[in-house]
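Collaboration report, partner site 2.

Our partner group contributed sequences for two proteins of shared interest, and the home lab folded both. The records are reproduced in the order in which they were received, starting with the first partner submission.
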Amino acid sequence: MTFRGLKSFAFAGAASLAALAATSAQAVEIEYWQYFYDARVTAMEQLIEAFEAANPDITVTMTTFPYADYRTKVAASIPAGEGPDVVQLFYGWLNDYVEADLIQPLPADTFPAAQIDADFFPMVQAMKDGDNYWALPTAVRSLALFYNERLLDEAGVEPPATLEELMTVAAATTKVDGAGNLTQVGLTAGMTAQDHHWWREGLVRQMGGEPYLDDYKTVNYDSEAGLDALNFYTNLFMGENPVTAIGFMDEPQAAFKAGRAALHIDGSFRIGSLAGIRGLKWGVTELPATADGTRSNYSSYWVNAITTKAEGEKYDAAVKFMEYITSDEAMQVWLDVVGELPAKPSVGMTDENANDPVFGPFIRGLEYAHTTKFADESGQRQLMVEMIERIQLEDMDPAESLAIAAKAEQALLDEYYAK
């Protein structure tokens, strides 16, 4: 190599090193947190990989925690200047996160409220305050009825379309041993899972009631309709011929996954975790209607938000990441991997998705779904758990237990909204 060539080579090498150094200097790493759920982790890994390929100057590190520890970890880390730059939270926790100064509003120039109002399902507007959104979902949820094909075939019954048929099918698929102990349940049960949503927004409304008034600030289920809904629910495990038991195999979803439950009410997020279970043949149908065809459903969602920890270049990177994980592309990935429904009609209401034998019942359920506006989701859920425990364990009259729950929840709401 000539001196001129050597000099050129050295210059080119120096230039490459300088470019590399500049690139390294511009590289930004942000953290994303969500609770651990296998299908959600898989979906987010795919999204992060695609995002980083399109944005080579940004690295996204995902951290997960068990659901029981998640809120505590988030609440402790962000005030200390640690933890996530983008965080996933349940929509019912939004008020808590805002009051605790854990998240910041999305920038209006990138996420204009009018555009979001037009592009997303209306339920998402609960995340809006004035002209700003605090958070946005990749997906939304509704409930549907999962059924075990083998157990229904064995009993010679079809998936139920009405509440009356639900009881008939559940009875036909329930099994007990010689001592009268349940070995297989016709329907799972448990207010700690999705049943408190089914009871509030499903059964109470189907019995002719309205669970709350004044934009969910006033409890209204201590009524004839609420009592009818409670009696229907408790009859499942306390009737003359019980078709289920609270706590059977610890968790409702565990009983269905093990093939020990014929019917199971759950959210669309459950699809991903059921898909890979060997030997489990299952299907999905819409929640049972009343005899006159009245339907009601519950819809919820997890949202992504930018935390108050994100500043400067990390904030800019977090905004870019938020744009991607709320895009149409990301929503389709989430549907395919997790089974949760796209938050935009442009993705969810395509012919292929709306008529899908698995996703379709959930998507159709959005048409008659209601979203509970929680002040304290975990606290309000616990009151439903205690309502059932008083009836089951203390033999309290359902009407009395219902009145206690309603009074306690109203006190919780009053205290919250008085702040």
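Second partner submission, folded after the first:
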Amino acid sequence: MPVKNRFAELLPEITAWRRDFHAHPELLFDVHRTAARVAELCRAFGCDEVVEGVGRTGVVAVIRGRSDRSGRAIGLRADMDALPIVEQTGRDYASKSPGRMHACGHDGHTAMLLGAAKYLAETRNFDGRVVLLFQPAEEGGGGGREMVEAGALERWNVSEVYGMHNQPGLPVGHFAIRPGPLMAAADQFEIRVTGKGGHAAKPHETVDPMVISAQIILGLQTIASRIVDPLKQVVVSVCTITSDSPAHNVIPQVVVMKGTVRSFDKAVRALAEEKVKAIVSGIAGTFGASGEVIWHPGYPATVNAAENTGFALEVARGIAGEAAVIDDIAPQMGAEDFSYMLEARPGAYIFVGNGETASVHHPAYDFDDDAIPFGASWFAGMVEARLPAG
């Protein structure tokens, strides 16, 4: 099952869709143009059902196979939203929307799934139904959660679900995956330390929240180094620190810090939240200040089911060959809201090579259109492998 010849024929057309999406990036749930174009194309392909507005602005398209003896439905998901980044690629199809850019390749994911949709609607060489899930707001909005809560999996009786992301640094034509945790849970926190401000020349008359905050930042590092089992990964990062001080010689009254916690294990995730709050309260109280933590739960960990990872591997190896497929890539501390779908249904998430380009979320990132036949072949191949016609 190598790259399907049909996708070589369709490559110029799929590339044109991808570059159109790239030139017109949209953020979070405000993907109205993209979603409308996706729905228009799915109807033109002859999809049996196309429903818009699922999970606010998501699109679901259904293709029935030549038969439905199995009664099963396989879900395939692609994300549609872009990022608030100023593009620096210089491409002739670069973003026409200032301050917005497809810097994560979601335009490529959407185009590859559309290519697979066109092929599957033409051939229908499977027994059952494929449910195409075009999702908004992956970049921080939780569109995957919205689609699950809107009943996208229950309404169309999806029994297993698969997704894909491009991977800069992995050669085009290669795939990478692993069973179990693949991407981390991502929580955010805001810490507010309130002391007693004053003149910088009289620190003894103050309760300096800057010094206290420095102690808190150091204390938080013990969560990874001394509290959590060293064989279980966790990252605690304080990324911003601001104060209400108006000048270089004024000790502030309030300091605010913001950061993130990344983890894979649910127990570690809960422990990290508990210890962040305890460390902030304890250190602040020791110095006579108050410390408040506002916790923002983020995406859960993306966890591939072992059996479904095996199915995904088999299809990837059939397309790219054994040597071009990594079956135990190291887990990544980035987060992905396909995790909500994997919590609701068994399935797997795989990386497809994007070659030597800038990393995702970088203004010079560039999706490699040569990856399209591989990604589209994998999407289509998952359907034909999991819903065999014969």
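Feedback sent to the partner group on the second submission included the following. The mean pLDDT is 97. The two ends are 16 Å apart (CA to CA).
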